[in-house]
UniProtKB/TrEMBL annotation:
Belongs to the quinolinate synthase family. Type 3 subfamily. [4Fe-4S] cluster binds at residues 89, 208, 298. It holds the Pfam family NadA. The gene is nadA. This is Quinolinate synthase. Gene3D superfamilies: NadA-like. Binds 1 [4Fe-4S] cluster per subunit. Pathway: Cofactor biosynthesis; NAD(+) biosynthesis; quinolinate from iminoaspartate: step 1/1. Its main location: cytoplasm. It comes from Terrilactibacillus tamarindi.
Length: 346
């Protein structure tokens, strides 16, 4: 039963002591996040990994790209474990190295040597390594505007991977007109729309399948039902949704906004379901809804469940750790360049 598994997990964590460290992303299920030594959004988890403990094993409760990042930022002999190898990210899967290497010469031909590649941390180690090798950096939703400003001190144009929405929303927040951003379609290997000498941002056509589910209709419907409602969304939502919302920001921003909200205020939140549910539980003084009543869940985040988590602990204790995420050395070195350019500025 769930209670037995919880007891077993707790016992094994005690037994392992400082040998194991457990970071967890805010989108994780309650049954797993209760065991996290630290909770965070993707920036905080990267920072925590970079400074990390001496723990021999890091059981990463999050998705594959986060575990890769933790491996890149920790020392050679530390082992990062992902409790379920199927915990990927559909957005990270929308940019692969083959597509990027195919696109890059075309972009160079159009714009010359004026482009810096920047990638959301929600990407594979290979994409991060490409950015690192070409002078670029990673960004998270917490520092995207700061990092884009930095990127423009390096080059005239940014190729932003893999989330077109975070790229467009951040560009717009910085005052870049929409017509100065062009979409790159990595499947068809061509531009979608007009580009010109004025183009500032090339947006890789990727998206988050969770955050894309929040719509203008959802916002209109809440505003009609409840005139006091305030709409709070993540910048992985579309440009139209972000524009129609009252507030938009990263996971950390959303949590802070809710923690500081006046008692009695009403909120509809456009982000992953587990986080919205937890905010609702933790803040009975507020009225909190999911912006989309269908409750948008990240299927891959949810693959990390109590049975997989317990299994990871068990295998460490047996001396046969499973699901170790190891980024090849060369790749890790280049990806670290991109991550470090972000971490020194965060
Ligand atoms: P942040 O943790 O940077 O807000 O990103 C949200 C997300 O989609 C993580 O996969
Ligand atoms: Fe990827 Fe979206 Fe899930 Fe985050 S919420 S892990 S971006 S699919």
């Amino acid at each position: 039963s769930q209670a037995d598994l919880e007891k077993k997990a707790k016992h094994m964590i005690d037994e392992l002591g400082s040998k194991v460290y457990i970071p967890g992303h805010h989108y994780q299920k309650d049954e797993v996040i209760q065991f996290a030594h630290d909770k965070g959004d993707s920036l905080q988890l990267a920072q925590i990994s970079a400074k990390n403990t001496a723990a021999e094993y890091i059981i990463f409760c999050g998705v594959h790209f986060m575990a890769e990042t933790a491996d890149i930022l920790t020392s050679e002999d530390q082992k990062v474990i992902l409790p379920d190898m199927r915990a990927g990210c559909s957005m990270a899967d929308m940019a692969n190295l083959h597509q990027l290497e195919r696109a890059w010469p075309i972009l160079q031909e159009t714009f010359g040597d004026t482009i810096i590649p920047m990638t959301y941390v929600n990407s594979t180690a290979e994409i991060k390594a490409f950015c690192g090798k070409h002078g670029g950096a990673t960004v998270t939703s917490s520092n995207a505007d700061k990092m884009m400003r930095w990127a423009f001190t390096q080059k005239k144009r940014i190729l932003f991977l893999p989330d077109q929405h975070l790229g467009r929303n951040t560009g717009a927040k910085m005052g870049i007109p929409l017509e100065d951003m062009v979409v790159w379609n990595p499947i068809q290997n061509k531009y979608e729309g007009e580009f010109s000498e004025e183009t500032k941002v090339i947006l890789w056509k990727g998206h988050c399948s969770v955050h894309e589910k929040f719509t203008i209709e959802n916002i209109t419907s809440w505003r009609e039902k409840d005139p006091e409602i305030q709409i709070l969304v993540h910048p992985e939502c579309s440009y139209e949704v972000v524009q129609a919302s009252d507030f938009a920001g990263s996971t950390q921003y959303i949590i802070k906004k809710i923690e500081e909200a006046p008692a009695g205020s009403h909120w509809a939140i456009g982000t992953e379901m587990n986080l919205v549910q937890r905010l609702k539980q933790d803040h009975p003084e507020l009225t909190i809804h999911s912006l989309n009543t269908m409750m948008c869940a990240c299927l891959t985040m949810n693959r990390i469940d109590l049975p997989h988590f317990t299994y990871s602990l068990e295998k460490i204790i047996e001396g046969d750790p499973q699901n170790i995420i190891k980024v090849p050395k060369d790749l890790a070195k280049d990806a670290k360049l991109a991550l470090d350019r972000m971490l020194v500025q965060s």
